[in-house]
C-alpha cells in the first residue's frame, strides 16, 4: 500500500500530523520511514501537545477535548439497521 501511494499519488499528502504517538509507534515509524520517499516522509510531523498542534491547525478546528470548538466523536457499535444497509449495498444486483 505504501508503495502504491508513493508511486501513484506522490503529492496527495500535504501534511500528516500524529498527536501523542506512543514510543512504540515512534520506533515503528523510524523503520517505516526508511522505506518511504524522503519527500513523503518529511511531510509527517509528530506533535506532543495542543500547543504544538496549533502551529499547524487553528485551535477553532480542534476537538473540544483538545480545547477547540468541534464536537468530539464517539464511536458506537453498528445497529441492526446499519448492518442491514451494509448487507443490502454489498449484494450483487
UniProtKB/TrEMBL annotation:
It comes from the Eukaryota. SUPFAM superfamilies: CRAL/TRIO domain. It holds the Pfam family CRAL_TRIO. Residues 1-74 form the CRAL-TRIO domain. InterPro entries: CRAL-TRIO_dom (IPR001251), CRAL-TRIO_dom_sf (IPR036865), PITP/CRAL-TRIO (IPR052432). PROSITE patterns: CRAL_TRIO. Gene3D superfamilies: CRAL-TRIO lipid binding domain. This is CRAL-TRIO domain-containing protein. It comes from Rotaria socialis. The lineage of its organism: Eukaryota, Metazoa, Spiralia, Gnathifera, Rotifera.
Amino acid at each position: 500500500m505504501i508503495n502504491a501511494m508513493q508511486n501513484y499519488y506522490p503529492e496527495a499528502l500535504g501534511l500528516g500530523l500524529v498527536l501523542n504517538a506512543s514510543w512504540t509507534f515512534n520506533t515503528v515509524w523510524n523503520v517505516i520511514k526508511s522505506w518511504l520517499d524522503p519527500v513523503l516522509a518529511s511531510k509527517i510531523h509528530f506533535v506532543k501537545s495542543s500547543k504544538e498542534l496549533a502551529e499547524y491547525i487553528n485551535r477553532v478546528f480542534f476537538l473540544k477535548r483538545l480545547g477547540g470548538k468541534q464536537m468530539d466523536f464517539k464511536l458506537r457499535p453498528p445497529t441492526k439497521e446499519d448492518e442491514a444497509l451494509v448487507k443490502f449495498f454489498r449484494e450483487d444486483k
